[in-house]
C-alpha cells in the first residue's frame, strides 16, 4: 500500500513537470526561467504552492495573491499521470513492463498536452523515451535483443511513413503529422511489430468518434491524431493478454 501511494505521488510530481514542459517548450520558453508563476499577476509561487494536487485543493484553485482561477488542466494532468503510474505498478509490479508502461504513460500525458493545445508532438520526449526503452531492453534482455528491438521500431516507423505517404496522395494534404510518424518508432520498440500494427488499427477506432464529432461541429478544424495513437499504445500494452487473444483468432 505504501508503494502504491508513493508511485501515485511520484506520478503527480512528474505530471506537474510534464505540464510545464508541454506548455513552455512549444512556445520556446525556458524550463527554468521564469520560475512557476501566476499567469495573471506574475506572483512567483512558493514551494508550498507548488505541491501537486495538494496546493490546488488548499488554495481552492485560486492564486493566493490575486485570487484569479488557476487552470484546471494542472490538476487534471497531475491526476492523470498519478493514476497511470499507479495502475502500471498494480498491474505489472516492479518489472520491465512497469518501466515501459510508465514511459508510455508519460508520453500519453505530454502528447495530450502539446497535440491538443498546439498540434505538435515535441521531439525531446520522444528521444528521451527512446533512449530509456533501449536502455531497459539492454538491462533486461541484453544488447542483441535491444538491437533487434530497434529494428521493430524502424519497421513500424517505415509502415507509418508509407501510410502517411499514401494518405497525402489520397487527401492531397499532409495526412499524418511528422510527430505521429516519429512516435511510431517508439511504438514499435515498446510493443514489438505485431502489436504496434494492432495499436495503429486500434487508434483509428479511438479517433473516429472524435473526428466525426469535430467535423460536424467545426468543419475546418484539424484533428490531432497523436493523442489517440499514444492512448492506443498504452491500452494495447496494458491489455496485451486480451489483444493477444484477438490476434490468435486470425
Ligand atoms: Zn495571481
Average residue pLDDT: 91
Q: Poorly predicted ranges (pLDDT <50, ≥5 residues)?
A: none
* Quaternary structure annotation: single chain
Small-molecule binders here are: zinc ion
SSE diagram, text form:
Layout: H1 2-24, H2 54-58, H3 72-92, H4 96-118, H5 123-141, H6 143-171, H7 178-217, H8 226-238, H9 240-249
The structure holds zinc ion.
Walkthrough of the structure:
With 250 residues, the protein is an all-alpha fold. It has two domains: 1-94, no CATH class; 124-250, no CATH class. Helix content is 73%, strand content 0%. The structure holds zinc ion. Zinc ion is lined by residues 38, 40-41, 43, 63, 65-66, 68.
Short description:
This protein is mostly helical. It contains nine helices and no strands.
Q: How would you describe this structure in keywords?
A:
single chain, 250 residues, mainly alpha, 9 helices, 73% helix, binds zinc ion
